[in-house]
Amino acid sequence: MFFAGGERGNIWLTAVPIDTTDGRVRLGPETRLFAATHDAGGLYVGYPMVYYSVTTDGQRFLIHRLPPTIDPPPATSIDLVLNFAEELKAKVPRQE
Protein backbone atom coordinates (compact mmCIF):
# COMPACT_ATOMS: atom_id res chain seq x y z
CA MET A 1 0.00 0.00 0.00
CA PHE A 2 1.26 3.47 -0.85
CA PHE A 3 0.19 6.70 0.79
CA ALA A 4 1.35 10.27 1.07
CA GLY A 5 1.66 12.08 4.32
CA GLY A 6 3.31 14.93 6.10
CA GLU A 7 2.70 18.60 6.46
CA ARG A 8 2.58 21.43 3.97
CA GLY A 9 6.07 21.91 2.62
CA ASN A 10 7.26 18.52 3.94
CA ILE A 11 5.43 15.68 2.19
CA TRP A 12 6.67 12.16 1.52
CA LEU A 13 5.42 9.00 -0.17
CA THR A 14 5.37 5.93 2.07
CA ALA A 15 4.99 2.20 1.36
CA VAL A 16 3.54 -0.43 3.70
CA PRO A 17 3.62 -4.12 2.73
CA ILE A 18 0.33 -6.00 3.20
CA ASP A 19 0.24 -9.77 3.79
CA THR A 20 -3.06 -11.63 3.34
CA THR A 21 -1.71 -15.14 2.66
CA ASP A 22 -3.56 -16.83 5.53
CA GLY A 23 -6.79 -14.85 5.09
CA ARG A 24 -5.82 -12.30 7.72
CA VAL A 25 -4.57 -8.81 6.98
CA ARG A 26 -1.13 -8.04 8.33
CA LEU A 27 0.59 -4.72 7.78
CA GLY A 28 4.37 -4.61 7.67
CA PRO A 29 6.62 -1.73 8.68
CA GLU A 30 6.25 1.52 6.82
CA THR A 31 9.07 2.70 4.60
CA ARG A 32 9.41 6.29 3.47
CA LEU A 33 10.23 6.18 -0.23
CA PHE A 34 10.97 9.79 -1.05
CA ALA A 35 10.19 13.30 0.05
CA ALA A 36 9.00 16.15 -2.09
CA THR A 37 8.65 19.75 -1.09
CA HIS A 38 5.29 21.24 -2.00
CA ASP A 39 6.73 24.73 -2.36
CA ALA A 40 9.33 23.48 -4.84
CA GLY A 41 6.67 22.04 -7.15
CA GLY A 42 6.88 18.54 -5.70
CA LEU A 43 4.29 16.03 -4.58
CA TYR A 44 1.01 17.69 -3.72
CA VAL A 45 -1.59 16.05 -1.52
CA GLY A 46 -4.72 18.00 -0.76
CA TYR A 47 -8.14 16.61 0.12
CA PRO A 48 -9.96 15.42 -1.94
CA MET A 49 -7.26 15.35 -4.63
CA VAL A 50 -4.09 13.30 -4.54
CA TYR A 51 -1.80 14.11 -7.41
CA TYR A 52 0.05 10.83 -7.80
CA SER A 53 -0.58 7.34 -9.14
CA VAL A 54 1.31 4.07 -8.81
CA THR A 55 1.91 1.56 -11.63
CA THR A 56 0.33 -1.86 -11.11
CA ASP A 57 3.74 -3.43 -10.41
CA GLY A 58 4.40 -0.82 -7.70
CA GLN A 59 7.75 0.12 -9.21
CA ARG A 60 7.02 3.55 -10.68
CA PHE A 61 5.03 6.63 -9.78
CA LEU A 62 3.30 9.23 -11.89
CA ILE A 63 3.35 12.51 -10.03
CA HIS A 64 1.62 15.76 -10.91
CA ARG A 65 4.07 18.50 -10.14
CA LEU A 66 2.87 22.01 -9.61
CA PRO A 67 4.41 24.59 -11.93
CA PRO A 68 6.60 27.25 -10.38
CA THR A 69 4.68 30.25 -9.18
CA ILE A 70 4.81 33.06 -11.71
CA ASP A 71 3.08 36.34 -11.10
CA PRO A 72 0.70 37.11 -13.98
CA PRO A 73 1.23 40.37 -15.82
CA PRO A 74 -1.08 43.21 -14.78
CA ALA A 75 -4.33 43.56 -16.70
CA THR A 76 -4.17 46.29 -19.33
CA SER A 77 -7.68 45.96 -20.71
CA ILE A 78 -11.09 44.48 -19.98
CA ASP A 79 -13.43 43.05 -22.62
CA LEU A 80 -17.05 43.79 -21.82
CA VAL A 81 -19.70 41.76 -23.66
CA LEU A 82 -23.21 43.20 -23.64
CA ASN A 83 -26.21 40.93 -24.19
CA PHE A 84 -24.04 37.82 -23.97
CA ALA A 85 -26.99 35.39 -23.86
CA GLU A 86 -28.56 36.88 -27.00
CA GLU A 87 -25.23 36.85 -28.85
CA LEU A 88 -24.68 33.24 -27.85
CA LYS A 89 -28.13 32.21 -29.09
CA ALA A 90 -27.41 33.88 -32.45
CA LYS A 91 -24.04 32.12 -32.86
CA VAL A 92 -24.93 28.62 -31.62
CA PRO A 93 -27.61 26.71 -33.49
CA ARG A 94 -30.45 25.51 -31.35
CA GLN A 95 -30.82 21.73 -31.09
CA GLU A 96 -34.29 20.30 -30.83
Summarize the structure in short.
The protein is mainly beta. It has a domain at 2-68. It is 8% helix and 33% strand.
What features would you describe in this structure?
The chain is mostly beta strands. The protein has a domain at 2-68. The chain has one helix and nine strands; from the N terminus they run βββββββββα. The protein has one helix spanning 84-91; strands spanning 2-7, 10-15, 18-19, 26-27, 31-36, 45-46, 49-50, 52-54, 61-63. A three-stranded antiparallel sheet has the order 1-2-5, with no helix packed on it. β3 and β4 form a beta hairpin. The chain is elongated, with a radius of gyration of 23 Å. 2% of the residues are buried. The mean pLDDT is 77.
Key features of this structure:
9 strands; mainly beta; 8% helix; 96 residues
Please describe the biggest sheet, giving its number of strands, its sense, and whether it closes into a barrel. Answer: 3 strands, antiparallel
Number of strands: 9
* Overall shape: elongated
The overall pLDDT, averaged over residues, is 77
Quote the distance from N terminus to C terminus.
50 Å
Give the SSE order as H and E letters: EEEEEEEEEH
Report strand order across the widest sheet.
1-2-5
Instruction: From the alpha carbons, calculate the radius of gyration and give it in angstroms.
Output: 23 Å
Q: Could you name the ranges where pLDDT drops below 50 across 5 or more consecutive residues?
A: none
Helix content: under 10%
What is the beta-strand fraction? 25-35%
SS class: mainly beta
Number of helices: 1
